[in-house]
Amino acid sequence: MRKLIRYYAFWYGCLGTLLSLAWYVAALYNRAxxxxxxxxxxxxxxxxxxxxxxxxQRGAGPxxxxxxxxxxxxxxxxxxxxxxISLLNFICCLGVFIVGVGLGNQPLVERMVSLILxxxxxxxxxxxxxxxxFRPQNLFSGSFIRAISDPLGILSHRTDDR
Length: 162
Fold this sequence. Notes:
Elements: H1 2-28, H2 38-55, H3 73-103, H4 106-134, H5 136-139, H6 142-149, H7 156-160
Helix pairs in contact: 1-2, 1-4, 2-4, 3-4
């Protein structure tokens, strides 16, 4: 079962990244917006939530699993760069949105909503892909993994009691 989940999350990350990138580019050119059909939104949410739950599991402990792609320094560097660019892109979209709200520029705010959502989905799918492709331990420092796994510090006291 774990192997099936691993394959699902990896391939979701691959395909989700490609589809999110296409949606983001379409949103950049004002050719795509947020879908109005509730079934499309729910389907995307269900696929994404399933992969995210598998990726950001809590309380499972550090179970060993092999990376899906051969880990090399060049590939790790590329993965970090792509993830950093997607994070920076999301932060820029969010910043433009906040500035637009502050200036009262309603057309800019309306345009940025789809860009924020698509850039956030793109950043998430890229992370899901690199998480399963290379394992987080190969990509990030231990302190970053702890911080991202428990950003509010809620779970840290539970691990100290063990």
